[in-house]
């Protein structure tokens, strides 16, 4: 009778687990369809059932049944193995994905941390690591003790490292935690988590979509941090005693993509990651897909940041060709039948609200405009170097004009994209000797940056320096001095703000 009762209890728990799995699967479908509130309700219900099952097993002092082990990780997060605690980890992971889509970074991080902690503990148990075991280098006592330390986030990270990152599921948790940290603006810590997710590349990042995303995210973030670095240099003390001319020249050297040796290793890693992402993305989605175009764009950014302008031009050209072919294919398919895959993709990237075909079309135009803008910037950069070609400036102006036309027609005037194109156009006009046209572009770009970021932002200081240099070349020294003095005032204010703890990194 006792055996029968115990067997009946296991059967009941197994049935409840199947119900929880079905509810979570329903949540996955709702999430894919953009019904986020209903998806969160489904995940919450599945989590409640699984937490209750876990509590029952703890009270009975029982391990999970074979049936639960077989079913616990069939929820689509790529895991293997099982057990009730891992089924809880699966639900927490799914909830974290939904929080990411909703840009709820704090809650996403909490859910992924919980999921990671469960997975690491299971790995510790399965690998037989003993709590009192010490590392030879005097590090944490063990993965198990690290996972119980006072800092859960870093404890789980150390535990995963101690286990040499053997689990694909742990890798995906680390990857998604990196995305949440990036959303919070904690870029250096996000890079740390992305790096951990690449610790053992072959095991952690197989050639699937999830594994490819780790390479793309890390590479893209390293490029973004490199882009921000020159603005940080503007607030440093370097060159403060050299006078306005040399200080401005140093600032413009940084803003022009020179950069210090300290960034070189990051750029090398970025190119390595983005090259792998590009290759894998083309294999998964095809050469003519939007995904391949995005990957080619980021690879071009890496080459441009490294000063390899011809390679950057090749990548941006490839990106534009893929966008054009992808757009033509999407248009012909839309004329033939209803298909909202692009809408789902937009939702998965975290865009607010449901995207219709008009919104998707507008977004594609923006991506094309950005690709043209960076192609123009690459031609402009190459025109200054030893490998310059005769038509680089003409091709730069052609690409920038087309980009600007798209932005104005599609309602993106007054945006950062609009101002950035104008600044590059100003550089081209300067090279052609058209000072008046250059100043006109800079003045419009200046107004846009003032409206978007305020009159005392570092972006405004950048444009002020550019306008001053342009006016010096045109021998309008009094007007140029006004711009230089205002730029130095902004620099001084930001340098003081950083020293006193009042600096705003988000202004970068």
From TrEMBL:
Keywords: Repeat, TPR repeat. Residues 1-10 have a biased composition (Gly residues). Residues 1-37, 51-83, 133-155, 232-263, 330-363 are annotated as: Disordered. Residues 141-150 have a biased composition (Low complexity). TPR repeats lie at residues 20-53, 89-122, 171-204, 461-494. The keyword Repeat applies. It comes from the Eukaryota. Residues 51-69, 346-363 have a biased composition (Basic and acidic residues). This is MalT-like TPR region domain-containing protein. It comes from Odontella aurita. The lineage of its organism: Eukaryota, Sar, Stramenopiles, Ochrophyta, Bacillariophyta.
């Amino acid at each position: 009778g006792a055996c029968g009762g115990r067997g009946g209890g296991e059967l009941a728990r197994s049935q409840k687990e199947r119900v929880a799995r079905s509810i979570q699967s329903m949540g996955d479908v709702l999430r894919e369809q953009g019904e986020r509130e209903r998806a969160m309700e489904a995940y919450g219900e599945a989590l409640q059932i699984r937490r209750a099952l876990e509590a029952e097993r703890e009270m009975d002092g029982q391990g999970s049944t074979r049936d639960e082990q077989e079913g616990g990780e069939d929820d689509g997060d790529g895991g293997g193995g099982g057990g009730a605690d891992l089924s809880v980890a699966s639900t927490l992971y799914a909830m974290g994905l939904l929080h990411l889509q909703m840009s709820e970074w704090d809650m996403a991080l909490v859910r992924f941390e919980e999921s990671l902690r469960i997975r690491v503990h299971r790995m510790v148990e399965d690998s037989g690591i003993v709590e009192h075991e010490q590392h030879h280098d005097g590090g944490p006592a063990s993965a198990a003790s690290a996972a119980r330390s006072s800092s859960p986030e870093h404890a789980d990270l150390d535990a995963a490292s101690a286990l040499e990152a053997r689990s694909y599921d742990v890798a995906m948790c680390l990857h998604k935690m990196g995305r949440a940290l990036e959303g919070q603006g904690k870029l250096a810590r996000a890079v740390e988590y992305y790096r951990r997710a690449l610790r053992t590349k072959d095991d952690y990042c197989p050639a699937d979509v999830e594994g490819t995303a780790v390479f793309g995210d890390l590479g893209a973030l390293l490029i973004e941090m490199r882009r921000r670095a020159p603005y940080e240099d503007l607030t440093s003390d370097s060159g403060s005693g050299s006078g306005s001319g040399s200080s401005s020249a140093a600032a413009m050297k940084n803003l022009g993509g020179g950069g210090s040796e300290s960034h070189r290793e990051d750029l090398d890693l970025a190119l390595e990651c983005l090259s792998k992402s590009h290759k894998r993305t083309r294999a998964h989605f095809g050469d003519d897909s939007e995904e391949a175009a995005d990957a080619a764009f980021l690879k071009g950014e890496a080459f441009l940041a490294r000063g390899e302008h011809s390679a950057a031009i090749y990548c941006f050209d490839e990106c534009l060709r893929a966008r054009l072919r992808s757009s033509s294919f999407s248009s012909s398919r839309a004329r033939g039948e209803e298909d909202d895959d692009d809408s789902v993709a937009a939702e998965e990237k975290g865009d607010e609200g449901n995207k219709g075909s008009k919104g998707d079309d507008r977004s594609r135009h923006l991506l094309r405009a950005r690709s043209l803008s960076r192609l123009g910037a690459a031609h402009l950069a190459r025109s200054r170097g030893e490998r310059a070609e005769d038509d680089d400036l003409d091709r730069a102006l052609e690409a920038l004009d087309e980009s600007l036309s798209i932005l104005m027609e599609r309602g993106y005037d007054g945006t950062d994209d609009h101002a950035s194109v104008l600044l590059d156009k100003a550089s081209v006009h300067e090279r052609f000797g058209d000072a008046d046209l250059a100043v006109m572009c800079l003045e419009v770009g200046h107004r846009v940056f003032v409206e978007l970021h305020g009159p005392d932002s570092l972006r405004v200081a950048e444009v002020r320096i550019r306008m001053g240099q342009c006016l010096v070349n045109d021998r309008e020294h009094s007007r140029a001095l006004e711009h230089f003095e205002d730029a130095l005032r902004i620099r001084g204010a930001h340098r003081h703000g950083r020293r006193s703890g009042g600096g705003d990194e988000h202004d970068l």
